[in-house]
Amino acid sequence: MKKTQLARLLAYVSGMVNQQLLLQNEYLIAENRILRSHLPARVRLSDLQRATLAQIAKRMGRRALEEVASIARPETILGWYRKLIAQKFDGSKHRHYPGRPAVGREITELIVRMARENSGWGYDRIAGALKNLGHSVSDQTVGNILHRFGIAPAPKRSQQTNWADFIRAHMAVLAGIDFFTVEVLTWRGLATYYVLFFLHLETRRVTLAGITQHPTEQWMVQMARNAVDVIDGTLLPVRFALHDRDAKFCTSFRAMLQCGGVQPIVLPPRSPNLNAFAERWVRSIKQECLSRLILFGEAALRRTVTEFLSHSILSALTKAKAISCSSLPRRLHDHDIQVASNVMSDSAACSSSINAPHEYFDPTTMIPFRYRLRSSGFLTKGLGPGEGGRERVRLPPHPTRAALSPDQRSAVLA
């Protein structure tokens, strides 16, 4: 009897406690919903807060969680728990083996360069060329790299040609024609002289056509006749000549060029970039030479321009002699490559050291441009950058030039 009464008493007390807990839970649920309605649509939680809610939600179960969850859906909270378990058993941080190494940047650039410069080379051909250079790369790796850079395979790549490649392939038959003006002092005052020149786009070789104070139609026709001469014409290997819409390029001038097999192409208005090589050479001769000299008469102008042209050719030859085949830069101008191929006539020169002189090396040609201009009598005080004086001075003789014989000096200044 006593045991029965004790059990009833315990049941009554536990019922009171359970009822109290149920009321507290109901109150907390209502309060959470009210607070949730005042919060923004999405509540950002930290990783620790997600882990705490996920552990409690796993013990409650989906059905019980649907009644109380208000911060997120039950599926989302249980998904947090699954991610927590996955991170616990993730051993990727403890793996020490590196895996397959990636292809180096230099090899990648070399593969892309080969594919762009040789449109008919496939994956196997590029892999073979790399093997000859000492790089072991599979054809599949070559294909993946080209696909990453958006380069099509060889059959499609050979059928697609952009404008840059098209113009580069036809530079041997293109030439630029242009004028530039120079102010020269004469006995009658300051006079404007017009200098006409031709520039071969492939070799960048500049030829002085003529200098005049009055570029009349007869003079222009004579310059065109000299340029297309069958014996020593400047435009013999050229088929197309680019020039602007200057009125000095008259109809008879263009007709004379056409008679010699050269088709003149008139550029659109206000488009100096279409004859960029000629425009850049005009800027070079003006900044490096003419803007630093005070010229007296047409003869001084002619000697100065001729000396600058000779200096440009000698500088290119000296640069080509000092460069070996193993140390050629990545991007050489076509003119430098042409000069290097002419100077280095045999394969033995390619293996020679940089400091070793070539068999055609002549020390008499190593006279700087500023000392060679002394023969014209119009050398300025400063030819270097930042020296703005125009005072005529007498410079001491160059040591290399002083050691030359009179015959060698006349040959150099010719």
Strand order of the largest sheet: 3-2-1-4-5
Unreliable spans are 324-403
Largest sheet: 5 strands, mixed
Regarding quaternary structure, what we see is: single chain
Give me the Rg, rounded.
Answer: 41 Å
Q: What general form does the structure show? A: elongated
Number of strands: 5
Average per-residue pLDDT, rounded, comes to 75
What name does CATH use for the topology of the domain at 170-288? Nucleotidyltransferase, domain 5
The CATH homologous superfamily name of the domain at 170-288 equals Ribonuclease H-like superfamily/Ribonuclease H
Total of helices: 17
Tell me what the CATH architecture of the domain at 170-288 is. 2-Layer Sandwich
> Which sequence of SSEs, written as H and E, runs from N to C?
HHHHHHHHHEEEHEHEHHHHHH
Amino- and carboxy-terminal Cα gap? 141 Å
Give the helices and strands, then pairings:
Blueprint: H1 2-38, H2 47-60, H3 62-68, H4 74-88, H5 105-117, H6 123-132, H7 139-148, H8 154-159, H9 163-169, E1 174-186, E2 189-200, E3 206-212, H10 217-227, E4 240-243, H11 251-259, E5 263-266, H12 276-288, H13 297-322, H14 334-343, H15 369-372, H16 399-402, H17 406-413
Parallel strand pairs: 1-4, 4-5
Antiparallel strand pairs: 1-2, 2-3
